[in-house]
C-alpha cells in the first residue's frame, strides 16, 4: 500500500467534542444518514473497492483516510453517483440510490452539498454566480433574492461581500476553498462532502478552515463526510475516523481508538515518527 504524505499534529489538538453517542452497530445503523453496503467499484480489470461497508451517523464529522490511490475520492464520487459501482447498495437519507425515483433523487441531491478538490469553481463565473448555480438548478427565486442569499453564504464562510464579484482567478487558495464551501451550502444541506478541503493551504489557513467546518457543523447541525490526509483535521474536528485499505474500510472509530489499533498501516499513520513528533 502506498505511503501517505508526511503528517503533523498540532500539539494541543484534541478530538472534536459533541460526538453523537453510539451504542454499538445497531444504534449506528439506526442513526445513519448514509449507509454503504457491499460496494464494489472497478475500472477495467482493476478493482478499487471490494465489498466495502460504511455508515455515516447524523450530526457527526467523519474523517476518511487511507494511502494514496486506495480509492478515497473514488468512494465519495460513487456515493454521489459520478462513478458506477459493480455491486452493492448505497442509501442516503433512507433512500436506496438504485431504486429511487427521479423525484426522490432530486430531493436527495438538494439535501447534500459538495466541495471538490481544488474547489472546482467555474472559472468564467464570479463567486456570486458560482454560489447561485445550485439555486438556479433547484429553486425558483428572483435574481434579487439569489443575490442576497449569496452574500449571506459568503458571510457564513467568513468572506467579505466584496468577494462576490471576483472571479476565481482573483482569489487566494484559502478564499477559493471558502467560496467553494459557500456554494456547497447554497441549498442549506443536511450532509456535506469535502474532498481534501485543507489540501494546498498553509498551516494557519488549514487550521482556520478546520475551525470553520467545526463551527458550521455545530451551528447548522451538518453531517460532514471529509476525505483528508491531514492529521490536524482528524484531531481537531473529526468525531470519528474511517480508514480505507485493502479495498475496504479497515477500521472506524475515534482518534483514541485509531491510536490503539495494531494494523500495520494504521499504526504507521497514527503512531509513526512524524505523527508522534509533535503530539
UniProtKB/TrEMBL annotation:
<dbReference type="GO" id="GO:0016887">
    <property type="term" value="F:ATP hydrolysis activity"/>
</dbReference>
<dbReference type="InterPro" id="IPR017871">
    <property type="entry name" value="ABC_transporter-like_CS"/>
</dbReference>
<protein>
    <submittedName>
        <fullName>ABC transporter ATP-binding protein</fullName>
    </submittedName>
</protein>
<feature type="domain" description="ABC transporter">
    <location>
        <begin position="34"/>
        <end position="271"/>
    </location>
</feature>
<keyword id="KW-0067">ATP-binding</keyword>
<dbReference type="InterPro" id="IPR003593">
    <property type="entry name" value="AAA+_ATPase"/>
</dbReference>
<keyword id="KW-0547">Nucleotide-binding</keyword>
<feature type="region of interest" description="Disordered">
    <location>
        <begin position="1"/>
        <end position="23"/>
    </location>
</feature>
<dbReference type="GO" id="GO:0005524">
    <property type="term" value="F:ATP binding"/>
</dbReference>
<dbReference type="Pfam" id="PF00005">
    <property type="entry name" value="ABC_tran"/>
</dbReference>
<comment type="similarity">
    <text>Belongs to the ABC transporter superfamily.</text>
</comment>
<dbReference type="InterPro" id="IPR003439">
    <property type="entry name" value="ABC_transporter-like_ATP-bd"/>
</dbReference>
<dbReference type="InterPro" id="IPR027417">
    <property type="entry name" value="P-loop_NTPase"/>
</dbReference>
<keyword id="KW-0813">Transport</keyword>
Amino acid at each position: 500500500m502506498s505511503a501517505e504524505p508526511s503528517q503533523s499534529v498540532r500539539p494541543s489538538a484534541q478530538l472534536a467534542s459533541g460526538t453523537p453517542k453510539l451504542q454499538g452497530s445497531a444504534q449506528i445503523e439506526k442513526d445513519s444518514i448514509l449507509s454503504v453496503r457491499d460496494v464494489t467499484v472497478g475500472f477495467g480489470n482493476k478493482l478499487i473497492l471490494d465489498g466495502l461497508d460504511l455508515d455515516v451517523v447524523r450530526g457527526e464529522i467523519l474523517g476518511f483516510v487511507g494511502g494514496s490511490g486506495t480509492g478515497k475520492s473514488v468512494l465519495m464520487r460513487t456515493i454521489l453517483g459520478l462513478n458506477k459501482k459493480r455491486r452493492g447498495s448505497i442509501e442516503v437519507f433512507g433512500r436506496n440510490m438504485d431504486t429511487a425515483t427521479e423525484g426522490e433523487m432530486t430531493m436527495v441531491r438538494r439535501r447534500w452539498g459538495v466541495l471538490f478538490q481544488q474547489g472546482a469553481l467555474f472559472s468564467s463565473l464570479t463567486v456570486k454566480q458560482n454560489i447561485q448555480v445550485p439555486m438556479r438548478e433547484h429553486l425558483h427565486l428572483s435574481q434579487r433574492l439569489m443575490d442576497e442569499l449569496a452574500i449571506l453564504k459568503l458571510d457564513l464562510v467568513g468572506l467579505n461581500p466584496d468577494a462576490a464579484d471576483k472571479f476565481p482567478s482573483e482569489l487566494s487558495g484559502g478564499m477559493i476553498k471558502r467560496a467553494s464551501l459557500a456554494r456547497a451550502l447554497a441549498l442549506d444541506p443536511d450532509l456535506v462532502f469535502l474532498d481534501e478541503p485543507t489540501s494546498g493551504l498553509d498551516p494557519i489557513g488549514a487550521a482556520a478552515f478546520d475551525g470553520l467546518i467545526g463551527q458550521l457543523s455545530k451551528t447548522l447541525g451538518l453531517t460532514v463526510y471529509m476525505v483528508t490526509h491531514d492529521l490536524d483535521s482528524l484531531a481537531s474536528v473529526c468525531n470519528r475516523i474511517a480508514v480505507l485499505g485493502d479495498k475496504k474500510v479497515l477500521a472506524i472509530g475515534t482518534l483514541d481508538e485509531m491510536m490503539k489499533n495494531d494494523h500495520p498501516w494504521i499504526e504507521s499513520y497514527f503512531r509513526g515518527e512524524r505523527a508522534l513528533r509533535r503530539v
